Amino acid sequence: MTDHVDTSIEEAPDAIETEYHIGQDNITPFGLDIHNPVFMISSISIVAFVILTLMFQDSASEFFVWLRDFLTQNFDWFFLSAGNIFVLFCIVLMVSPLGKIRLGGPDAKPDYTYMGWFAMLFAAGMGIGLMFFGVSEPISHFNSSLGGTALEGGARTDWAPLGAAAGDAAAARDLGMAATIYHWALHPWAIYAVVALSLAFFSFNRGLPLTLRSSFYPLLGERVWGWWGHIIDTVAVFATLFGLATSLGFGTQQALAGMNYLFGWSTGDFAKVLLIAVITAIALISVLRGLDGGVKLLSEVNIAMAALLLIFVMIIGPTGDIFSAIISGGVAYAREIIPLSMPFGREDTNFSQGWTSFYWAWWISWSPFVGMFIARVSRGRTVREFIFCVIIIPTIVCILWMGVFGGTAISQVVANASAAVKDAPLELKLFEMLRPLPLATFTSFLGIILVLVFFITSSDSGSLVIDTITAGGKTSAPVAQRVFWCTFEGVVAAVLLLVGGATALTALQAMAVSTGFPFTIVLLTMCVSLYLGLRETRKSPGA
Amino acid sequence: MYKNIMVPVDLAHESRLEKALATAADLGRHYGAEIHLIGVTGVTPGAVGHTPEEYKRTLEEFADRLSREKGVGFQAHAEVSHDPAVELDKIIERKSEEIGVDLVIMASHVPGFVDRFVRSNAGYLVEHSSISVFVVRG
């Protein structure tokens, strides 16, 4: 057990008075420092889930896919409404007087420069999806929009967003860009911002440990230190680890497909394990070098390379079409955001349930991880600055990114209806898009490296987050613990991929996405908590 | 022989520091040396302080109390780190050079401490600097 220094001095002026001492529920076996129930329950149940899923692959897959579809199809209105609430909540906070509150107190100085901070939030927040979906999603929406609507028994059977744009290529492109940007811009970042801001506020301003349960203190009081809190933290660990491990598993297959396509490398089991081992090893080096020497450095490398690829494609690609896609895509986003985000009375149910509702569940299931990580690096920013940089800037970057990659791909399809990029499998679309452009070998190679680096930056920051949650909010736990989580994630990914293959990965990924449902309730509650907390701080003298 | 003695402290495990602190106090009195307590805190709330400022005040009070009790000068040096678990050894090395420390006394018996100091820190200091290192066991 740990013993505590009796702090007879006054506490931080705004700290919540709680009986709880950070670390009081921690145990220290073998020189570790772990939160007793959360660490044990989450690690044991993760192992149990992996084993059970592998033993009963087909039924597990059937059940979790059913659960995911049931939730995203029946609660589409709930996900879409919640997404809108998060965006509005953030914008209201940003412009209200509460926006002046500084994370860490009035005298706090930002821990990171804008560049370092932004690189870390982007690398953790979007990651690999940008690489694969940046090309494929605009094309999907473009194609389905161009195809127009199809009715069968009074219900739409097409996957087009809104009313589609039958036969009109320019309108289909704009609608496709708007729909893609909608899934990647304000809404997902508002989801992250809600979690990150509540955690940062309750931790840096109110003195509670940096873990999810803390943001429920205003509502649950001392009960957050008991089982309520254990459950919230454990589910967060669960969602994060399975989200990361299944993405790593799927991503390995995608990256190998790319390498096979480019260099003719093998895609066999040995190659899979080797690739996971390399990614995990680099992530391990990164966590051992720490937040500044590892995670931040890699995030900066990552963002610099992404910017390089973006600018490169912008110049060597169809520059005119790209600029037009960026501008008219951005305008279309602004025009269509309200119809796209309508939670009720939708006719395009395949789109709103199969795409939007799924995406929201997916982003929300990532939010404990990304939110915790963003929170940790955001001390010293004001609420206003925080929301602007976490929501508005990423939105602009997403419009640019989707415009460049999606715009190039769509212009290839418009020019040639049988362009390779149109029908290529998801993991090859990026490379098929780059192939007709000059210097394709170089850009494709850069693309593959970027995919791998995006993985590493998710894996290392994810390990730090899980380590902090399972250490009861301590960020100073022994290094051995983050090594454990980082390795564990790689092992889970490798075992799922080798023993179970796509069925097991699909099952557990569907499970991770399903946690988006309870977490939506958690996030809505966070909005209330955060508002109450900020208002209290605003009123208190000296704040 | 010694002018500046440094003792790295983890205030969350104060009772386990007693022997190292007593050793430092005795040597300090004997050589007329100043004793420097160095504590490293993260920016997030921890067991010792909710904020880095609060941590700093706690460490200063701890040093003042020791100065009174042991009759030898203890000074507090609170360092803030984004990632204390990995930056600790570098911070101790840098700080010991800044202060001009000629002896480092560390406790080794605290769980977690073992990992932090003996495997990385004491070893790191022994390898990387010319300062004498005294590891005090339980």
UniProtKB/TrEMBL annotation, chain A:
**What is the protein's membrane topology class?**
Multi-pass membrane protein
Q: Which GO terms describe its molecular function?
A: transmembrane transporter activity
State which residue ranges cross the membrane: 38-57, 77-95, 116-135, 181-204, 225-250, 270-291, 303-334, 354-374, 386-404, 437-456, 483-505, 511-534
**InterPro entries under this entry?**
BCCT_transptr
Predominant subcellular localization, coarse grouping? membrane
What cellular-component terms does GO give this entry?
A: plasma membrane
Family annotation (Pfam families):
BCCT
What superkingdom heads the lineage?
Bacteria
State where the protein is found: Cell membrane
Is-annotated flag, keyword Ribonucleoprotein?
A: no
Q: What keyword terms does UniProt attach to this protein?
A: Cell membrane, Membrane, Transmembrane, Transmembrane helix, Transport
Family indicated by similarity = Belongs to the BCCT transporter (TC 2.A.15) family.
Q: What is this protein called?
A: BCCT family transporter
Organism the protein comes from:
Flavimaribacter sediminis
UniProtKB/TrEMBL annotation, chain B:
So which domain of life are we looking at? Bacteria
InterPro entries from the UniProt entry? Rossmann-like_a/b/a_fold, Universal_stress_UspA, UspA
**To which protein family does this belong?**
Belongs to the universal stress protein A family.
Give start and end of each UspA domain: 1-137
SUPFAM superfamilies the record matches: Adenine nucleotide alpha hydrolases-like
Protein's recorded name:
Universal stress protein
